[in-house]
Amino acid sequence: MKKISLMLVTIVLFLFLVASCHGRLVPKDDIQTVKDFEVPETFDESKDIQITFWAKNDTNKIQQEIFNKAVDAFEGLYPNVHITVVQYSDYTNIYSDVITNISTNTTPNASIAYPDHVATYMEGNNVIVPLDALMEDEKYGLGGSALKFNSVKKEEIQPKFLSECLIQDRYCILPFMRSSEALYVNKSYLEENGFSIPEVFTWEYIWEVSEYAKKKAEAEQKIMIPLIYKSTDNMFIQLCKQNDFDYTTSKGKVLFLSDEVSQMLLDLVPPIENGYFDTFKRVSYPGNYFNKGQCIFAIDSTAGATWLGSKAPLIDIPASELVDFETIVTTIPQVNPKNPQMISQGPSMCLFYKEDPQEVLATWLFMQYLLTFETQMSFSKTEGYLPVTRTVVDSKEFQEYLKNEAEYEVKRMATKLIIDNIDHTFVTPVFNGSSLCRSASGYLIEAMFNKKFRDAASIKELFSLVDKRYKLSTYEKS
Length: 478
Prior knowledge:
Structural class: alpha/beta
Number of strands: 16
């Protein structure tokens, strides 16, 4: 019987820092940290196997139900396997819990994860199972002959998404869904105030509209934050990419504490001082302003689409406070509109070592089941997620969904945005400590709201502070 429990975990920061050494595991040089997995010749269906899977949902009950349905279906095919799904609403809580459980050898069997997180897990002793042998196994690999369900073949997974799963030249995660960041725009406001709608929004355009909107709101004594950015980590990383500034190397050398980046941060000072933009950490979730007409541009994940827009189905604002307007979803603001750049993100799955290889194999089979047509199709419809299998994306059913006017239009636009821009997406290098580099990136953006850091000299002081706080100089490996 399936056991589903909802876990909203709060980890005390002190314990997290002790367990993770500031967000990193310290590898032991005298042991092999990752070993190859030997796939059993046969899956033993006479043996009862208990599996725990840590899932991530966007506080969306439909997503929870999809996991439940997948578990029921899988257990129907393999009655000897009993799956407990633990539902998390935040990637960070999953990450910190895994780090804590690595030290006590109590990790789940599998978990939703980001590549940055898995790179850190891999520094523990034989924590993560590399998937290469499992993926290629004739009987139980992707599309394997002995499987009781129609498993996706390796070539049916979007190649770019599969390439994002390589860590240390091994497949260490399996993609589940993909998303990106999007610019959600109050189109009605722009048109009503005489602004044309560009094909690609630039930062110059954003600041031009923001200046107008701020002055207009002040004259009318209304609240207005023209732009609210959900993830300052992503803002920093994408600005570096768009400007062709170095971020990090694949071996962990941090390159973003540079003079070029210093000027990039200083360029944000006028918009900050004039109140043109703010951040989720400082004010609130973008939709709380955007949906009330108090924000023109909201930058959030495509996976947040059902919370954004005046008719958003997951909206949590009194109807009396909403403003009716048309929303468009487009690429985030660009430095060079001829070469747009946007981050690739979204949940993947990692597999943890256990003493019993049958337990590992059973978990691997369930991970594959989550890539089957029905699960991929169902989950993608809950938010602006893109299925990772071309089998689903190219299907008649999925194409009809994208055209179905009964589905929330903003959500469909968010999904189409990823499809149309796969070639413009990118990922950052992954290594033990790369997740902390992301945190440091966001910290740099947030620090610019402090009046203390408003000139080149103080930025150097800020860089030194961030270097020490996140131990950036210790990440590089030879």
